[in-house]
Amino acid sequence: MELNSIKDAFDRVTKKQKVSYSKSREIIEQIGQEIEQALSRLQSDQDSTSPTDHKLVLSELKAKLKEIAPLSQLEGAQKELNVTLSKYPKLLEKSLNPDISKAYRNVDFDTLTVNQIIASHFYREGQFDLGDCFVNESKEQGAASNKSPFLEMFHILEAMKSRNLEPALIWATNNHEQLKQNGSDIELKLHRLQFVETLQKKGRDEALKYARAFLAPFAVKYMAEIQKLMACLLWAEKLDSSPYAELVSSIHWDKLAEELTRQFCNLMGHSYESPLSVTIAAGVQGLPTLLKLMNVMTGKKQEWQTMKQLPVPVDLGREFQFHSIFVCPVSRDQGSEENPPMLLSCGHVLCKQSITKLSKNNSTRPFKCPYCPSEVEAGQCRQLYL
């Protein structure tokens, strides 16, 4: 999908539309001025002792309007707009409405897993009624197992939107050990935010009591952070204009809600991003390449269905790179424990099986690197670990 070409075409349409609008407005104003001037002359003639011939005024007005030629000018501007506008839907149709079924191939899916992913996506997005409806219609009651945890998460997030941290603090306390094992400091961040809220709404004394009760356990590991919060007590009534004003920024609430979602999903054994959303987003990026491939392979649908790997690379953004992988540039096989990537003495990397074939299974027999003039020996190659 060539979004740049679509944007350029859209810009051309809007430019022509602005020109047409300006031209139409200019002509209409010009006509209005001529008519007003004629009316003014006719009205002044009624009070004049030597009235002007009305027919002469109207004749002059007609001549001026003919000279302006509003119809031809409007038609010209509108015609340019229509030509540009007529091309735009065709470009959209071509770019944004392709027959994506060409890029489809028959794949055996685990229906239960797919249904669980879909139901989990609805629950994750807070669409609980829709999730329940899907579970009932798919008759996969086991897919509803994630509803309760996500209900709890949304209860916490909704409370945070109302500046209520109590549910979040209860959750963090109940999962203290697991969060600690994961190296998360979200519990401290929640208490820090609650401390600032207490200081602003209830004053210095209540904030100090809160710090002694809940911040003291973090003093050993996060002393600098605790000292910063204690300094805020000196600015109790004017924290907004203090050196620590950034602590009251609403951005901390947004960031903490995002981090809580991430940690909540982590404790559930789920990824932060919905697998369904990630899959669709990756598919959208890869679809143009697949469609181009299928246009080239027209008439070879059977070959497409049996193809074990794509003949062209499908480049996805870094956000879709979750694990380090290596694909041998010679065999096009993905590296594995049985066929690991090996570093040649010249600096290039091939899979072990490719090196074995090139060296004819002889660890001391030199062979030429496929990518440079160097000769290397299989015995000198070193395994790389991903």
UniProtKB/TrEMBL annotation:
Q: CDD domains from the entry? A: dRING_Rmd5p-like
Query: RING-Gid-type zinc finger positions in the chain?
Result: 328-372
Where does this chain mainly localize? cytoplasm
Q: Which GO terms describe its molecular function?
A: ubiquitin protein ligase activity; zinc ion binding
The segment(s) forming the CTLH domain are 149-206
SUPFAM superfamilies per UniProt: RING/U-box
Cell compartments where the protein resides: Cytoplasm
- Keyword Zinc-finger listed: yes
One GO biological process term? proteasome-mediated ubiquitin-dependent protein catabolic process
Give one Pfam family, short name only: zf-RING_UBOX
List, for all copies, the residue spans of the domain called RING-type.
Answer: 328-372
Q: Where are the transmembrane segments?
A: none
Keywords attached to this entry: Cytoplasm, Metal-binding, Zinc, Zinc-finger
Q: Name one GO cellular component term.
A: cytoplasm
Q: Which residues form the RING-Gid-type domain?
A: 328-372
Tell me what this protein is called: Uncharacterized protein
Upper lineage is: Eukaryota, Viridiplantae, Streptophyta, Embryophyta, Tracheophyta
